């Protein structure tokens, strides 16, 4: 674990103040949960994150509300996917905390933390489907590991999840038989297997043509509107940001911290210059 001097030195130009805030928050104690917000599901406080030995972002403080779509945006290399890995507990932060429903995601009893993490689903950028399993088997796999459901009920739920993402009839298909868009939807069905209250999506539209990317955006909105699922979407695709984002968080690759946080259209009108320039790419006057 790096001390405050390490964080400040590695954060680079513009990152020293944010790193100091992060170190100060850590000094308050790893288990000091923030004041509870009835609408809040996740509270991120003064988070500093690294990729290897490089601190890519620090001083990150934001919330994820129940039933909202929060977009994490910024240029390639700014740390979006690194942030997601910290939010889901795959990597430990250099400083700061991630509180899920008031519980620190990185500190506590191992079994309690594992149960906490089963309350959210993750769709990785490449899909990460098991190539030796059919789509149905991929979706049933988390149920087999973490529930006491019988085989018939697992099959029923897997078919329902596949139908939910537009893959009804695809239970017996193998991942190698799928197009890129179908593979993304199958990965989303597996992320929904345990009926999570929060979904993390890493570049869901990456590599898709505009039509399939738009279909995936529509599916995200349906999950929010009809199931009340909160969604955190990591993306640099402007069409998706504007189509689905209730709020957006901008990670600046030069300042090494967040420089904007709010409704995407409001940020397009009144955000910092670099954020407006990012959101204006491809906009037709």
Describe this structure in words.
This protein has 285 residues and is an alpha/beta fold. It folds into 2 domains: 4-119 and 196-279, P-loop containing nucleotide triphosphate hydrolases (Rossmann fold); 131-189, no CATH class. It is 40% helix and 22% strand. The protein contains 11 helices and 10 strands. The strands form 2 sheets. Strands 6-7-8-3-9-10 form a 6-stranded mixed beta sheet, with helices on both faces. The longest helix has 18 residues, at 210-227. Mean pLDDT is 85; it is low at 1-30.
CATH fold node name of the largest domain: Rossmann fold
Envelope shape: globular
Tell me the name of the CATH class of the largest domain: Alpha Beta
Number of domains: 2
Number-wise, the strands total 10
Main pleated-sheet profile: 6 strands, mixed
List the helices and strands and how they pair.
Layout lengths: L3 H8 L4 H12 L12 E12 L2 E12 L3 E5 L6 H8 L7 E6 L2 E2 L5 H8 L2 E4 L11 H12 L4 H14 L15 H12 L6 E5 L7 H18 L2 E5 L3 H7 L2 E6 L4 E6 L1 H7 L2 H7 L6
Parallel strand pairs: 3-8, 3-9, 6-7, 7-8
Antiparallel strand pairs: 1-2, 1-4, 4-5, 9-10
């Amino acid at each position: 674990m790096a001390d405050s001097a390490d964080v400040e030195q590695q954060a680079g130009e513009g990152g020293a103040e944010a790193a100091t805030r992060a170190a100060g928050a850590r000094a308050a104690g790893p288990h000091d949960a923030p004041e509870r917000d009835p609408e809040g599901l996740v509270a991120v406080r003064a988070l500093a994150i690294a990729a290897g030995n490089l601190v890519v972002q620090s001083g990150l403080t934001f919330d994820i509300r129940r039933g909202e779509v929060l977009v994490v945006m910024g240029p390639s290399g700014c740390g979006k996917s690194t942030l997601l890995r910290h939010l889901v507990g795959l990597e430990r932060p250099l400083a700061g905390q991630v509180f899920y429903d008031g519980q620190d995601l990185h500190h506590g009893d191992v079994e309690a933390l594992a149960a906490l993490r089963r309350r959210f689903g993750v769709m990785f950028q490449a899909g990460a489907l098991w190539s030796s399993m059919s789509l149905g088997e991929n979706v049933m796999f988390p149920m087999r590991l973490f529930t006491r459901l019988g085989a018939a009920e697992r099959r029923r739920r897997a078919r329902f999840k596949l139908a939910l993402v537009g893959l009804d009839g695809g239970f017996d298909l193998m991942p190698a038989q799928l197009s890129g868009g179908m593979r993304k939807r199958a990965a989303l069905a597996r992320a929904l297997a345990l009926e999570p209250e929060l979904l993390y999506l890493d570049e869901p539209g990456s590599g898709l043509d505009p039509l399939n990317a738009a279909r995936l955006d529509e599916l995200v909105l349906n999950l929010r509107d009809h199931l009340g699922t909160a969604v955190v979407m990591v993306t640099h695709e402007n069409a998706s940001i504007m189509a689905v984002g209730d709020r957006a968080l901008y990670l600046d690759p030069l300042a090494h911290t967040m420089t904007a946080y709010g409704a995407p259209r409001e940020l397009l009108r009144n955000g910092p210059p670099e954020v407006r320039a990012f959101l204006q790419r491809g906009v037709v006057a």
